[in-house]
Design goal:
- Helix content is 21%, strand content 38%.
- The strands form 2 sheets. A 4-stranded mixed sheet has the order 1-4-3-2, covered by helices on one side.
- It has a single domain (4-54, 67-122), classed as 2,3-Dihydroxybiphenyl 1,2-Dioxygenase, domain 1 (Roll).
- The mean pLDDT is 95.
- By secondary structure, the protein is an alpha/beta fold.
């Protein structure tokens, strides 16, 4: 159902380097790029993730209560991707671990622009 997700950035080169390094571990590559946005995906027919300078020319800001969740295959991958994000300069918003029962295993971080991102898997 999701076609793509976009988060704003105020520093395109810095955000691009962060997501190039982070999303490569998920097998994602740049699939579209312009001066004001970059899009990554695993395949043209799969959901995509993008960063963009706001179209209205105002600074990018973080939406309160907004979070993007990216599905992974295993708890080990969630652990590794969370650690990778932190090593690239992200800030921790919740260490990897089980959440809320039902086999939901997740981690949370904020990217270099303060956007909240979640890596998760279903373990059951």
């Amino acid at each position: 159902m999701i076609g793509y997700i976009t988060v704003g950035t105020n520093d395109m080169p810095k955000a691009a380097a962060f997501y190039d390094a982070l999303l490569a571990d998920m097998g994602a590559k740049r699939m579209m790029e312009e001066e004001s946005f970059i899009v990554w995906s695993n395949a043209p027919d799969k959901a995509a993730f993008s960063i963009a300078k706001p179209f209205d020319g105002n600074p990018a800001t973080v939406g309160n209560g907004v979070m993007i969740a990216l599905a992974l295959e295993s708890a080990e991958q969630v652990n590794a991707m969370h650690a990778k994000a932190l090593s690239l300069g992200a800030t921790d918003e919740g260490a990897p671990g089980p959440r809320g029962g039902g086999g939901f295993y997740a981690s949370y971080f904020r990217d270099l622009d303060g956007n909240k991102i979640n890596f998760f898997t279903m373990t059951q």
